[in-house]
Amino acid sequence: MNKFVHQRHKSPTHLTRPRELIVACVPMRSNVNISQIARTASACAVEKMIICGNASLISKIARDATSELSVSTHRSLAPVLKKLKQNGYRLVGIEQTSNSHNIHDFSFHRRTVLVIGNERLGINDEILNQLDDVIEIPVWGMPHSYNAASAANMALYEYCRQFPQG
């Protein structure tokens, strides 16, 4: 007889304060990626997500995220980021650049907007120039980068690891 009783699903970890993290996605080609990012953002107790262009969530993929996460759609991300920066948010993009920081050595600020790039084109120069920081996730094989949803999920998890109570 097994001495251990395993509980398949546990209740979410209680946060002592709301997360001050916003996920912002540049226009993407794939609603699957957007939906996967939304699902992870919701699991991380992120309350707000910004999407651009013609993106929309696929409810079967995003699942519970649609009720827990406030998603707003904008034509352009640049003016939204400008306002968020004026409101004290630190703008952090996930991208491989000459000045990007390894995510393993990066300390997030509590008030952060995590900017996710396009699957093929990354983050354009207009948005890159607005960012306070750019982080990259090391890659040890081919291709040279993770897909947008995978990279976003890793960065979301790292933020939550650094601020486990919210």
TrEMBL record:
The protein in question is named SpoU rRNA Methylase family protein
What's in the keyword line of the UniProt record?
Answer: Methyltransferase, Transferase
UniProt cross-references to Pfam families, sorted A to Z: SpoU_methylase
Record-level Gene Ontology MF annotations: RNA binding; tRNA (guanine) methyltransferase activity
A single GO BP: tRNA methylation
- List, for all copies, the residue spans of the domain called tRNA/rRNA methyltransferase SpoU type: 21-157
- Species annotation: Desulfocicer vacuolatum DSM 3385
Q: What PANTHER family does its record include? A: 23S RRNA (GUANOSINE-2'-O-)-METHYLTRANSFERASE RLMB
Any one annotated GO CC term: cytosol
InterPro entries, alphabetized: Alpha/beta_knot_MTases, rRNA_MeTrfase_TrmH, SpoU_MeTrfase, Trm3/TARBP1_C, tRNA_m1G_MTases_N
Q: Does the keyword rRNA-binding apply?
A: no
